[in-house]
Write a structure and sequence with these properties.
487 residues; alpha/beta; Aldehyde Dehydrogenase, Chain A, domain 1; 7-stranded mixed sheet
Length: 487
């Protein structure tokens, strides 16, 4: 059994084990969702400690932004190497904190190192451009990307290494200092990531780490005149609130919010390959993924076969405590509230809203487990077809015409990811063009590589992380135009 580390904050280059706290105490219990046992505690930051972190980020910014890009690159790349070296131990801690199976946690950790690598390289690549002048009197017009300033990085629990890694690496590569506030349920994972940057030689104050009450921390940090950029991954409701706070200070804001991803499955799709990919991806991380496929829109001619096979595969998934068994394929939901949300969703089924053909219940015993669930023909007005379930629930809907499938897929204000499976080239082009989402994948589910932008539209947010966009999001555009000093 992996030992759970002592959790500490990082403020101005110092590891801090004691939180100043609030009226509810100075520490938070950390609970393994698979066993409901307390495995450790994390310090709770006070407003005074937040101010210390802000002051540290403010003081470090001029030095770090002036550091040559090649030096920033070397430090960030070294952090990626350390993350790979420590990946096994970090993956075990991820599993303890949020229940993700070990193979998935390990893949997340090594994948995050690849993200960091790519964004570190951007520090060397982004040199600006020269713009041709319209007058002989103008000697030069150059456009550069300048670091925006101290950044506030707010991340959830479902990818406790990947999501902080892409924000940290983008900010540091661009020359920004930062304060990371990860989910209160997964603090040690974030700490172990930050340790990689510290041990790689990152100067004091450039990166700070705090834990505690999400509302108090985010509101305090965003309101400060020190912060100049906010990057948030989480729910649409919270993202809208934080966006309004950022707007009051005219601060750059990148929200990556909820999703309700449709999957259009054409009659010509390779059935065996498609069903295998859909079932495996739907129940990965117990469906607790913003880009998780949720609404499966299936050509009517293969609908019954698809439902039966999907249900069969869902019932064969091995569920359990992944911290005690590496062969587990699906772990628990993050907390009791997620189980209650799934039960509320199930209670809304029936009476024409949709038929539960597999699963549908919480699993008895310790831990926050819920059965992989398949619902056939959920109605357009059903809760499942309109609200992000963020759990192991799939809705399968038949369609008669590809245009109708696209209409259903685009019927919500969510627009993070959309998918399609087809062997028809014309259909592939049509779906790629008409599906309304920030990311569309045809014949696979890969929308998260280090080189490509990751982000949505509509109620799923705006802006992108990863790719070159993950660097540019932490910069401001500056034009410098120079005229002759004399005629």
């Amino acid at each position: 059994m992996t030992a759970y580390p002592q959790v500490k904050m990082l403020i101005a280059g110092q590891w801090v084990a004691e939180g100043g706290g609030d009226e509810n105490g100075t520490s938070m219990a950390i609970v393994n969702p698979a066993t409901e046992q307390t495995i450790g505690s994390a310090p709770k930051v006070s407003r005074e400690q937040l101010d210390a972190a802000l002051n540290a980020a403010d003081a470090a910014f001029p030095m770090w932004s002036a550091t040559p890009a090649i030096e920033r690159y070397r430090i960030i790349r070294r952090a990626a190497d350390l993350l790979r070296e420590r990946a096994q131990g970090i993956a075990r801690v991820i599993t303890l904190e949020m229940g993700k199976p070990h193979a998935q946690a390990l893949g997340e950790t090594t994948g995050a190192a690849d993200l960091i690598d790519f964004l570190a390289e951007e520090a060397k690549r982004q040199g600006g451009r020269l713009v041709p002048t319209r007058s002989a009197a103008i000697l030069e017009q150059r456009v550069t990307q300048e670091p925006v300033g101290p950044a506030i990085l707010l991340t959830p629990w479902n990818f406790p290494i990947n999501l902080p890694a892409k924000k940290i690496a983008g900010a540091l590569a661009a020359g920004c200092s930062a304060i990371l506030k990860p989910a209160e349920t997964t603090p040690a994972s974030a700490q172990m990531l930050v340790e990689c940057f510290v041990d790689a030689g990152l100067p004091d104050g450039v990166l700070n780490l705090v834990f505690g009450d999400p509302a108090m921390i985010s509101e305090h940090l965003i309101a400060s005149p020190v912060s100049r950029k906010v990057s948030f991954t989480g729910s649409t409701a919270v993202g809208k609130h934080l966006g309004a706070l950022a707007a009051q200070g005219m601060k750059r804001f990148t929200p990556e919010l909820g999703g309700h991803a449709p999957v259009v499955i054409g009659e010509s799709a390779d059935f065996d390959r498609t069903i295998a990919a859909c079932a495996a991806t739907k129940f990965r991380n117990a469906g607790q993924i913003c880009v998780s496929p949720t609404r499966f829109l299936v050509a009517r001619s293969i609908f019954d076969k698809f439902v039966a096979e999907f249900a069969s595969r869902s019932q064969a998934i091995k569920i359990g405590d992944a911290s005690a068994d590496d062969s587990v394929e699906m772990g628990p939901l993050a907390h009791a509230g997620r189980v209650s949300a799934m039960e509320d969703l199930m209670a809304s089924m029936g009476d024409g809203a949709g038929e539960i053909v597999a699963g549908g219940s919480a699993i008895a015993g310790p831990g926050h487990f819920f059965q992989p669930t398949v619902i056939a023909a959920p109605s357009p007005g059903s809760k499942l077809m309109n609200e992000e379930p963020f759990g192991p629930v799939a809705g399968i809907v038949p369609y008669d015409d590809i245009a109708d499938a696209v209409k259903i897929a685009n019927s919500l204000r969510y627009g993070l990811a959309a998918y399609a499976f087809t062997s028809n080239l014309d259909e592939s082009h049509y779906l790629g063009k008409t599906l309304r989402a920030g990311m569309v994948a045809i014949n696979h589910f890969g929308v998260g590589s280090p080189e490509t932008p990751f982000g949505g539209i509509g109620d799923s947010g705006f802006g992108s992380e990863s790719g070159v966009e993950g660097y540019l999001g932490y910069t401001e555009t500056k034009l410098v135009t120079v005229a002759k000093s004399a005629p």
